[in-house]
Structure of T-complex protein 1 subunit epsilon:
Amino acid sequence: MALAFDEYGRPFIIIKEQEQKSRLRGLDAQKSNISAAKAVARILRTSLGPKGMDKMLQSPDGDITITNDGATILEQMDVDNQIAKLMVELSRSQDYEIGDGTTGVVVLAGALLEQAERLLERGIHPIRVAEGYETASRIAVEHLERIANKFEFGATNLEPLIQTCMTTLSSKIVNRCKRSLAEIAVKAVLAVADLERKDVNLDLIKVEGKVGGKLEDTELIYGIVVDKDMSHPQMPKQIEDAQIAILTCPFEPPKPKTKHKVDIDTVEKFQTLRKQEQQYFDDMVQKCKDVGATLVICQWGFDDEANHLLMHRNLPAVRWVGGVELELIAIATGGRIVPRFQELTPEKLGKAGLVREKSFGTTKDRMLYIEHCANSRAVTIFIRGGNKMIIEETKRSIHDALCVARNLIRNNSIVYGGGSAEISCSLAVEAAADRHPGVEQYAIRAFGDALEYIPMALAENSGLQPIETLSAVKSQQIKDNYPHFGIDCNDTGTNDMREQNVFETLIGKQQQILLATQVVKMILKIDDVISPSDY
């Protein structure tokens, strides 16, 4: 390293090794990319399955998150490498599309890249590897269709949906309450589902949490829970057969939109102004009373004078309610959001059988329950837990269970879990490899080997001997020609996933294979890494 000066006398440093540095190209670039993606997959591998470990993530401002949800782990990680960011995007895509399987899809992509690296070292061109993987993914997806079973469920037969949600929750921190949480998730989805169109709007399900109590106290409310209380402590805490006025206009005198100035030089003028303000408040409250409202929910606040007047006129009110919550309340109660007092009519009032304020523990925390609504197509899952981290992880777990129930309503086909589907697909892909002449058969066979990484990771995370366990299950599947044998992670004594009631949605499993293959093909086709300094 040497110090030099330019023609203006400004110093700069000459690094001797600068000429020796060169950007990565060809096989070196592909190996570097594969190494970066494998590093991300290795982090998530230990979180796979019901016995998977949790990760503790610390944000730059010191907040702690404990989770084993793949999408959340990668979302919170500070990833700089561009290829590693592709793996983060992969997990996010699985989360957006399916809602579950975010860890498995990254582990599978890592396994496919590991197998691809061996093929590249043997001199096989990356394009041929990518084409072989594409062929193998089609074979695997078609095989999943053949081994899938259809679940019939209805309003009286929820067990198939509950069992599938329990499989999703069994890998989470909340697995000791998986039965009750699965039932809550299924009932919530069915409450908002349109079974004729096979459509579910998850925006109608509000997930709210409050620290305190225990996980078993989590409940489903056919209505809306708002983290607010009555505006005045002397207002009634319980209102039956409530007629609700939902307002986005404030309880205050109108303000001119132009610049204005009021000059008051006598006591009489001040008293006149004060009386006018009181008249405004009085008229607003009277309009609400005239249309028959027994409860006012307002998006904005109001001052003490308006609050006192509302209490004096026996009109309970709630203030500072958010816009999203107002929309849910309007949907649940069948009311209309009113932007001006002049537009308030009896037809625009929402109806609820019971509105009550509930306090928690020894704190002053209170929440408003709006129940027995005219339209129960908006529900709330209210989570209790010992601390904030448990609440947040339970919310993520409930989200996965809701997505699985929604996917089953859209497509009621399921495959069996515990790695049984991957082993069966691996056998089908290996059998198909012999029918493909040329170099692609190596890639197809490698794809089959990569599928076995999922059951191996499940066995490893459950404290079993991975290779021995996988070999035993694989031979069992071949011998009995029965695709439902998987890894006995919970040590129940049987490898039959049908007996263990371990189910996964077919579309979730197919999406995993297709997404992982797409991203791996993209990574394999990158043979040059160009940074801004190379321009």
